[in-house]
Structure formats: structure tokens, C-alpha cells
Specification:
With about 80 residues, the chain is an all-beta fold. It has one domain (about 1-75): F0F1 ATP synthase delta/epsilon subunit, N-terminal (ATP Synthase, domain 1, Sandwich). Helices cover about 0% and strands about 75% of the residues. It is built from no helices and six strands. Strands 1-2-4-5-6 form a five-stranded mixed barrel. The model has no long low-confidence stretch (mean pLDDT about 95).
Length: about 80
């Protein structure tokens, strides 16, 4: 699946990934390939990404919104 993490200042990350773990306001949740469509609010925490080469990346955020649609994940982060 394709992931983009965007802040008001710049694009932090864009690549194909295996999984994403996000800090939702009601608790952390994960997104895998072919996930159902979703829109959710995010709280302060860390976005944990595993890319297709199994490398792990962590991106601290201060909140935001995530949209999952057509195997594409867009995180609009503060």
C-alpha cells in the first residue's frame, strides 16, 4: 500500500509500505494492505511504519487525521 505523511511544512514520508501503526484518539490501531476505507482523528504519539524492505521508521506527531482509501494511506499530521 502507498503511504504519505504530510505536515503543514513538508512531506515527511512517501513510499510503499507493509504496515502502519497510528495513535488514534481511542487507542493505537494498525493498517495493513487492502484495508477497508477509513477516516480517523489522531492524537499526539508516534506513527510506526514498516516499509516493504522490513525497515522500521518512527514519526512523532502532535495529532492529525488519517484517510485510508483505495490502498492509499494519507496522514495529515501536526
Amino acid at each position: 500500500m502507498h503511504l504519505e505523511i504530510i505536515t503543514p511544512d513538508k512531506k515527511l514520508f512517501e513510499d510503499e509500505v507493509k504496515s502502519v501503526i497510528l495513535p488514534g484518539i481511542d487507542g493505537s490501531f494498525g493498517i495493513l494492505n487492502l484495508h477497508a476505507p477509513l477516516i480517523s482523528v489522531l492524537k499526539k504519539g508516534v506513527v510506526k511504519v514498516t516499509d516493504n524492505s522490513s525497515a522500521k521508521h518512527n514519526f512523532p506527531i502532535n495529532g492529525g487525521v488519517v484517510e485510508v482509501l483505495h490502498n492509499k494511506v494519507v496522514v495529515l499530521a501536526e
